[in-house]
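Minutes, project check-in
Item: structure for the 331-residue chain
Input as provided by the requester:
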Amino acid sequence: MSNVPPPPTNLRGAVDLSSLVNRPPAGAAGAAPGASGAAAGQATGDLTLPSLYFEGTDANFNDFIDLSMRVPIVVGLGTERSEQWQQFAPVLDRAVGSFRGRLVGVKIDVDANPQLTQAFQSQAVPTVAALVAGRPVQLFAGVVAEDQLRDVFEQLLQLAAQNGVTESVTVEGGPDGAESDGDAAAPETAPEPPLPPLHQEAYDAIDRGDYEGAIRAYRTAIAQDPRDTMAAAGLAQVSLLARLSGHSADELRTAAAESPRDADAQLGVADLDISGGHVEDAFDRLLTLFPSLDAAGKEQVRARILEYFEIVGVDDPRVGKARARLASLLY
């Protein structure tokens, strides 16, 4: 995305948090961890929290709405059932941490928190949004490369400044008051079942930003078990990250506009659309281009669309429509 959209309507009321109408003061039982005083928006001077990272729930989210009056909140919605989310979550943490307290990260489990999932209009995993001055800001769905993620957060900080939200967090016991790498104070979660070794190898490579290493690990997993659908989805996802890495949205969109019949240019902007959750735009772009291509170009586009099917999810109705349209063009 090239511009952060203006904040829509206030989130209060969009989420049914009636049980918190008479909630105890922030810091009492049920409040967000470590969010006493500051999370309630009280003028306490320095904004000190135990971490830059929290778990958001239907029960505690009003505290983060209050906190967003002082510092922008990055909201990541996902589920541990999604390998894409497992791969992207540490990238999101690292990007938040790189701003050294100017952002706070909140993760929401979409399976356990249906009210917030609905409020943020999360239709894909991951969905990344923000809170600024008590208002939600839709950012993107899907995944983006880490450098693009930081670009989005820079724009978010500009929007926050326009709304007078300019404080920074001092982390209790943290170096210089805030973590710099997105790892030191990540929220505690229940232990997850171990991933298969090659999946873990890919996950670790992605965490390091080594997309090529992750691609090799997933390809090895598929070679060992062609029925490994999680590896196929992971390979498609990390391949997308690798292709987008080092490219700006403006660069990709300019190239596509200047070369409307060039397969590589159109594939580049389709990658951008998929990463930003604009799934139907990506499918329509490539399927409209398809009939004008030579045999090699058609095969290149067909293969990329099949990758997108894995990323979006084969059960997604948008995939069903695109699959039918592709079949009509092939046969």
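Outcome recorded: Residues 102 and 168 are 5 Å apart (CA to CA).
No further action items on this chain.
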